[in-house]
Design a protein that fits this description.
Layout: H1 2-5, H2 7-35, H3 48-61, E1 67-71, E2 79-83, H4 86-96, H5 102-118, H6 124-128, H7 133-136, H8 147-158, E3 162-164, E4 171-173, H9 176-184
Antiparallel strand pairs: 1-2, 3-4
Length: 188
């Protein structure tokens, strides 16, 4: 998700969902504990709600690239269809079912918090606030990171096969061999 959103939005998402995912599971447990005659009394340690909030974003934002079918014995079913995201969901299901029923409560709370963030059902502060740019190492200017790239790409359109001679300052043509050597220069 960090690749899709960028470091700043990802850090903002984590800092926005951290308070609800830390506070809601113990509150749910304190409500359900007397109703179940103290059978629900353990919450697993770890970032299960945060992982499931991220999984809700993954489910909504990342499309399925391919699907495949696994043939089953005829008594069970003809075939079962899986996708490229099935392994991620399988690992998440293992985490959510690892320490029942507390892990399932944490997983459900995390998924609901992630879904609420995705659909803007929480406070306005969730989606409008961003982590300061200096925390993630970005410059903070909109498009500032891409300014050099834009200049370089505009310059490539004019003369990709030429370079400036350092001695005379004149533009000279660079051959195919020079272009290939420039790609590998500094690699060894």
């Amino acid at each position: 998700m960090e690749r899709l959103w960028g470091s700043r939005k990802f850090a903002s998402f984590l800092s926005a969902i951290l308070p609800p995912t830390l506070l809601i599971p113990p509150l749910v447990l304190t409500i359900l504990r007397p109703l179940t005659f103290s059978t629900l009394n353990i919450l697993p340690a770890g970032p299960t709600p945060v992982i499931f909030a991220l999984l809700a974003q993954y489910h909504a934002a990342i499309p399925t690239v391919y699907k495949y079918r696994v043939l089953m014995p005829s008594s069970v079913a003809d075939a079962v269809t899986f996708s490229d995201k099935s392994l991620v969901y399988l690992l998440a299901a293992q985490l959510g079912l690892s320490s029942l029923p507390g892990s399932l409560i944490s997983a459900a709370v995390g998924w609901l918090v992630g879904l609420a963030w995705r659909r803007d059902l929480g406070p306005d502060l969730w989606t409008s606030w961003r982590v300061p740019a200096w925390i993630t190492g970005s410059k903070g200017e909109r498009g500032g990171d891409f300014e050099d790239l834009r200049r370089r790409l505009e310059g490539e359109g004019r003369g990709t096969a030429s370079s400036v001679d350092g001695v005379n300052g004149e533009v000279r043509r660079r051959g195919l061999g020079g272009g290939i050597l420039d790609q590998f220069r500094g690699a060894f």
